Every structure is written in C-alpha cells, then in structure tokens.
Amino acid sequence: MRLNFLILGAQKSASTFLQFCLAQHPDVFIHKQEMPIFEDPDYAHFSEAFIDGLFAGRSERRLGIKRPAYIGRPEVPERIYRAVPEAKLIAVLRNPVARALSGYFYYMAGSYIPLLDAETGMRNLLAGRYAQAYPRAQEILEFGLYHKYVSMYRPYLDSGRMLLIKQEDLVAEPDENFRKVFQFLDVDPGFRPAIRKAKRQGGHYN
User: How far apart are the first and last CA of the chain?
Assistant: First the structure.
C-alpha cells in the first residue's frame, strides 16, 4: 500500500479539522503528524521506502498525509508528481486576507517575526522590512498566493484529481462538503464524521 492522497493546505485554513474528520472514515488512514517530506530541506533525508513505511500494515483504501505548507513551496508539486502521479490532492482555501492575519499572529507566537501589533507588523512585512532579519516572514503573504501555487499542480487539476474547498463552505455546511470529499476519494460518501468532537485550533490574536 502506498501514499495515494494528500491534504496540501492552505496554512491556517482548517486543514487540521479536515484531517481529523477524514481520519474517522473506516476506509481512510491519514498520518497524524505533518509530513514535510517533499519540501526543502527535509526532502534530501527521505526516500520512497520511508514513505511506504508510513503505511506499513495498513489496509484502508485511502492512505494520506497532511502538510499545509505544500501550497506555498515551489519545489513541492513536481516532487509529489514524480513520487505519486496517481494520487488525489485536497486543498482548503481561506479568504487570503483573513488567512494572512491569522498567519501573522501564528508566526509572531512562534518567534518568526517581531512582537508588534498587526497594523505595524503587516506594514513592515508588505514593505519588505523583514526580508533580511526574518527569512520566514514572507511566507505569511506567499502562502496566500493560491493561483500561483495551485497552478503548479496543473496535471492533477486537468485530470480531475485535485479538489479545492473553501474554508467558509466547510465550516458552514460540513455534511455536504464531507460528502463531496468522501466521494472524491472514492470511499463511502454516506459516512458522517463526529464533527463536534473536533478540537478547535485556538488562534493567536492577543
């Protein structure tokens, strides 16, 4: 059994919620940890044997991983296609302004950017003032350039093997959207995950 589906992100767009609910389906197994196996610098340390080993002993129909940064990393799409060209991809996309603001506080909490109010910090970010001292800061904006990065997965889009969902739709109509996701993955679309048991990801807005 091999990796055959991936949740690509986007970062801060409910991909963890999606992961939690998909993992409840009896025909789906998704690794609990985020897997940076296709992005730099981690890519050099993983092999196909390692990827296969993630699913040793599993018998579920769909075997997957989640990594929100896979929308925002230009080196990733080609590597995924070389490794698993027949896989199915899922991306949850959030309003890019709301996503950037959430990302700003998340990066500030992780000490990737200075402790500054969002009004000042976002102006500094947009002006490029963090480029030298805080190399990861630009990810806050880059991870919201959906057209740029989703277009890099063109082979999957053209073959109907990439599903795009809006975060607001997933939250507002979870039953309908999970039916759509399960149908896309070719597993029982009638299964209903225990949505209310999902642990809410607390945002950093203080």
Answer: 44
